[in-house]
Design brief:
60s Ribosomal Protein L30, Chain: A; Phosphoribosyl-aminoimidazole Synthetase, Chain A, domain 2; 2 domains; globular; binds adenosine-5'-diphosphate
Length: about 325
């Protein structure tokens, strides 16, 4: 049976062109460019909690890195280096080859070097630490939103959560809808180009990993403000839009996890610039509301007042 060192050498020791020293020593050595700050984040995927244990290893390799890249996108940072810590129940080489394929395909697309990690036996657990660069003092933080800012989101919302409900047998999607929703669930596209082009434009940003309401709620808390968003302005994916106003589908839109889109705020004077940033990054951006003084999140429905979050069972994520 292959040793831990054989496995690392075979699947994870690749040339790290952008590092001083990569895999193979007691620590990697990296040198950030002058004038840059390091943005560092870690995210763990646990079998049975974040994915089904028999999930496709290629997709897992992609997703383990993608969720980390999404955090750097939300900071406006450029990813450079990654560490990969794996707990594996056994040395399944077909699984490792698939995982490495998915991981490195995404890493290469974004110029990320795998510079180290840890490999141990244990219940399947995938942990990535990502390091990136952002011009000093320019990162997009959660605490920068200002009164009167527009609130924006990228892409479409709700597809990943609806895809998960489809897998759980709670909703029946058409074949075409399932293809779209499951691709979003299994292979999210981190919005790196958009995040980087929002530096100097947006006041605050977060990536939507736990659902719009909760994640926007983090911006509200950190920025000590409230928000009003228009239900009709939310960019629901087609499969979600076709099933509204079903309460469980509304839940996918407002509180569904795994979208990995960006939610950000920007001054009203920057509307054209934000639209141009979206065009440049190849992703739609939708203006969904505004930052207000009164604390909490209000979701306005067409021709009416705020959605009654308690009546609809949303109390758990009201900001
Ligand atoms: P040490 O015992 O000194 O911590 P390890 O035996 O854990 O070293 O790892 C040997 C080398 O392989 C180190 O450079 C480590 O960063 C790297 N490494 C271990 N596991 C992985 C992995 N899954 N992906 C990338 N690099 C890894
Ligand atoms: Mg080690």
């Amino acid at each position: 049976m292959a040793s831990e060192f054989d496995l690392i050498a075979r699947y994870f020791d690749r040339p790290a062109r952008g590092a001083v020293l990569g895999v193979g020593d007691d620590a990697a050595l990296i040198r950030p460019a002058p004038g840059m700050e390091l943005a560092i984040s870690a995210d763990m995927l646990v079998a049975g909690r974040h994915f089904f244990p028999d999930a496709d290893p290629v997709q897992l390799g992609h997703k383990a890195l993608a969720v980390n890249l999404s955090d750097l996108a939300a900071m406006g940072a450029t990813p450079r280096w990654a560490l990969l810590s794996l707990a594996l129940p056994d040395a399944d080489e077909a699984w490792l080859a698939g995982f490495a394929k998915g991981f490195f395909a995404l890493a290469e697309r974004h110029g990320v070097d795998l510079v180290g990690g840890d490999t141990t036996r244990g219940p399947l657990n995938l942990s990535v630490t990502i390091l990136g660069e952002v011009p000093a003092g320019c990162a997009l933080r959660r605490d920068g939103a200002q009164l009167g800012d527009d609130i924006w989101v990228s892409g479409e919302l709700g597809a990943a959560a609806l895809g998960l409900r489809h897998l759980l047998g709670e909703v029946a999607l058409t074949e075409a809808e399932a293809a779209v929703c499951l691709a979003r669930l299994h292979a999210p596209a981190p919005r790196l180009a958009l995040g980087q082009s929002l530096v100097g434009l947006a006041h605050a940003a977060i990536d939507i990993s736990d659902g719009l309401a909760g994640d926007l709620g983090h911006i509200l808390e950190r920025s000590r403000l409230g928000a009003e968003i228009e239900l009709a302005a939310l960019p629901a994916c087609a499969a979600v839009a076709a099933r509204l106003p079903d309460v469980a589908v509304l839940n996918c839109l407002l509180a569904g996890g795994d979208d990995y889109e960006l939610c950000f705020t920007a001054p009203t004077g920057q509307r054209e610039a934000v639209q141009a940033a979206g065009v440049g990054a190849g992703v739609a951006v939708s203006r969904i509301g505004r930052m207000v003084a009164e604390p909490g999140l209000r979701i306005l429905v067409p021709g009416g007042g705020p959605l009654d979050l308690k009546v609809n069972g949303y109390d758990h994520f009201s900001a």
